[in-house]
Specification:
Layout: H1 8-14, H2 24-33, E1 36-39, E2 44-47, H3 50-57, E3 63-64, H4 68-73, H5 85-90, H6 102-111, H7 116-137, E4 143-144, H8 145-150, H9 152-162, H10 169-180, H11 190-216, H12 222-232, H13 238-268, H14 271-279, H15 284-294, E5 300-305, E6 309-311, E7 314-316, E8 321-325, H16 326-329, H17 364-381, E9 386-387, E10 407-409
Parallel strand pairs: 2-8
Antiparallel strand pairs: 1-2, 3-5, 4-10, 5-8, 6-7, 9-10
């Protein structure tokens, strides 16, 4: 086995509870001294440089998506392997855990739902829902943006697209928490795995029932379209159909929730930026991109090494896992000038918050639109909005970057003048 670069101090910093408060000094240290870092704690390679991550994501033959979840679960002790069956079955197929040609076929089927033109059709509904959520929140002294707004907006939208009953959103949220916990820690934990397996069984049975119902009673929704595609030929088998629904639902709201919460805390700390955005609404597009770069909603992805290879002269062996840390990559000083400064006018802004290559996030346009509409309405319509507590408690979660909660007082809504543009 090749010699692995080892640095216990950096590994300790990466796995310390204090890491979540401010991970960026740790990322900078890794970039400067060990951009290809072997983590003894996680038993994986950790990448923190932009160019290395782009190279990994551009080469699915060497760095595979297929089999990566099984390799992840293989790290568990024998005592918990009995619980991994539902997870191994689910992650054996589907869009995010496949490579070409299966990935090409699945993505081609789903892509048309998230084209810019298709996403634009969702805009009126997103604007209406954002307005309703903010208006309801303003009736209270304070609101938790994470659970009260950031959770409900994207979940309501993706449930509407798929055709999931609105009354089931709380159940969906609990399943998401259970399955998402599988990736929250640096390594694999027994309790998280058992909870994720139970949630996976329940959500797959749930979608199985909905799919059977759509086959008998079609509706004007994405689930019906997927069912009809399955019935039309060999485009989707039943397992792939269920996997697609689960993936779209879970991935379809987590990123946007984090974008909304992170953007709220970033902007409300800077009254000057808020004022500039009120005066120059067109600047919101750049602000959203900079929020995505500065506090990337998804902090980490990973691939399985499929072929012997090297990165920066370090040998990687087939079967090993590679973690690329988006939180570090999107503040790489070799790619971004003054990376720790928020610049709405940053151009170009080639962040990787939505990934890169063939697995670039299918719902990126939708997430950008949802986050932009909500944040624009918040800043424009509620000029008195402020953080209740300036100290943010971040989730102890390596997979996402999001506050545990974010209490905001919205204050009075800006009066709308008769005949004024709104």
């Amino acid at each position: 086995m090749p010699t692995r670069p080892d640095c216990p101090d950096l590994d300790a910093a990466l796995t310390s509870p204090s890491f979540f408060d401010d991970p960026y000094p740790v990322y900078r240290a890794l970039q400067a001294t060990q951009p290809v870092h072997w983590s003894n704690a996680w038993q994986v390679w950790v990448l923190t440089r932009y160019d290395d991550t782009v190279a990994v994501l551009s080469d699915p033959a060497t760095f595979a998506s297929a089999g990566r979840f099984s390799a992840y679960l293989d790290k568990l002790p024998d005592s918990v392997q009995d619980a991994t069956g539902p997870l191994r079955t689910h992650y054996a197929s589907g869009l995010i855990q496949s490579d070409p040609p299966d990935h090409t076929r699945l993505r081609g089927l789903l892509h048309k739902v998230f084209t810019p033109r298709a996403v634009a059709d969702f805009q009126p509904r997103v604007a209406q829902l954002a307005d309703e959520l903010l208006a309801a929140a303003a009736t209270h002294d304070q609101v938790d943006v994470v659970r009260g707004i950031g959770h409900h907006l994207p979940l309501g939208v993706i449930c509407g697209i798929l055709g999931v009953p609105a009354g089931d959103e709380d159940r969906i949220h609990e399943w998401n928490r259970g399955i998402g916990g599988l990736q929250a820690s640096g390594g694999v934990r027994e309790e998280n795995t058992r909870r994720a397996a139970v949630a996976m069984v329940e959500i797959e049975e749930y979608f199985g029932r909905l799919i059977d119902e759509r086959r008998q009673h079609p509706r004007d929704d994405l689930m019906t379209a997927l069912v009809q595609a399955q019935d039309a030929g060999d485009k989707l088998n039943r397992d792939e159909l269920i996997s697609a629904c689960v993936t779209l639902l879970l991935a379809g709201h987590e990123t946007t929730r984090n974008l909304i919460a992170n953007g709220t805390q970033l902007l409300l700390r800077r009254p000057d930026l808020c004022e500039q955005l009120r005066d120059q609404p067109a600047a919101f597009r750049g602000a959203v991109e900079e929020i995505l770069r500065m506090e990337s909603p998804i902090q980490r992805g990973w691939r399985r090494v499929a072929e012997p290879t090297t990165i920066r002269g370090v040998e990687l062996t087939p079967g090993e896992l590679v973690y690329y840390m988006f939180g570090a990559v999107n503040r790489d000083p070799e790619m971004f000038e003054d990376p720790d400064t928020f610049r709405m006018s940053r151009s170009p802004n080639r962040h990787l918050a939505f990934g890169h290559g063939i697995h670039f996030c299918l719902g990126a346009s939708l997430a950008r639109m949802e986050g932009g509409i909500l944040l624009a309405a918040l800043i424009r319509e509620y000029p008195e909005a402020r953080l209740v507590d300036d100290q943010v408690q971040w989730q102890h979660n390596y997979h996402v970057r999001c506050p545990e909660f974010l209490s905001v007082s919205l204050g009075a809504r800006r009066p709308v003048l008769t005949g004024a543009a709104h």
